[in-house]
Amino acid sequence: MKISKKAAVVLTLGSLLTLGACQSTGGGSASSGPEDMVVARMAEGDVAAICSGGRDAISAASKAATTALAKAGKISGDFSAIGQAAGTAFYKAKCG
Q: Does pTM surpass 0.90?
């Protein structure tokens, strides 16, 4: 399953908008379900590099983790929403 360039842009922009909204409003509670799986997958990488890379690196890591888990059949649903929530949760848990 290949993600189109347009879908990748939408996912990245959505992640950035969600991350910004959560930062400005104090954001909701901790994620559960597939978001947790994506955050865990992201944390398997170089957390310091992801955090120091800012929003772009967090979005890229979230997209990669979401895509890998979806391809493996481990998560299902609205992948864009899952990736956005996971990016925000990762930032709060690991970078904040």
A: no
Per-residue pLDDT tens over the stretch 14-34:
555 555 444 433 444 444 699
Q: Are 42 and 65 in contact (CB under 8 A)?
A: yes
CA 37 to chain centre: 10
Distance CA 10, CA 4 (A): 10
Residues 6+ apart with CB under 8 A from 9: none
Reference 40, options 57, 65, 60; nearest CA is 65
CB of 30 within 8 A of CB of 89? yes
Q: What is the DSSP string of 13-44?
A: HHHHHHHHHHHHH---S---THHHHHHHHHHT
